[in-house]
Amino acid sequence: MSETPELHQVAEARRRLSVHAELPRTYWALYGIALVLIAGIPIWASYLPGGLPGVQWALLVVALAAAAHAVIGRRRSGVHLPRRIGAYPGARRLWLAVLVATIAGLVGIHLLVANGLRPAALVLLAVVAAAVFLGQVRIRSRMRDDIAAGRVTP
């Protein structure tokens, strides 16, 4: 019989499992760069006379790389965490707030570029990128806390 009570064993198992919700620093660095590049597409396209012809392909590559990262991580660790944000009650509201801020920021960037206010769009891009980046980091932190506390729903 183990010297550690069962509840402590369960709590320790949850803490070990919650580590899998964390992402490496390299992921966050690449995420930040991709975020600025993708959110700034209207700005970058306004500087080029023909627009950005390969944007769809670049977005496809980014989406496929993110999906591959998730699949490789699950296979490597053997841990399959719920992928939908609704499974993590502590992250739901923050995810919704970040989503609303992202949409509002992208609409604002499009409107500023359409009205010829590229410097203002660049400033808004920096604000939106910082807000979304910090929001995503905080969402991951709340997901990790939910896993450790056993609040994840299947």
Structure classification: mainly alpha
Note the gap between the termini: 31 Å
Rg over CA atoms: 19 Å
Mean of all residue-level pLDDT scores: 82
Shape: elongated
Number of helices: 6
Relative strand content: under 5%
Question: Uncertain segments of ≥5 residues (pLDDT<50)?
Answer: none
Topology, number of strands: 0
Q: Percent of residues in helical segments?
A: over 70%
The biggest sheet, with number of strands, parallel, antiparallel or mixed sense and barrel status, is:
none
What are the secondary-structure elements, in order, as H or E? HHHHHH
Summarize the structure in words:
- The protein is mainly alpha-helical and 154 residues long.
- It is built from six helices and no strands.
- The longest helix is centred in the last third of the chain and has 32 residues.
- The chain is elongated and about 70 Å long.
- The two termini are 31 Å apart.
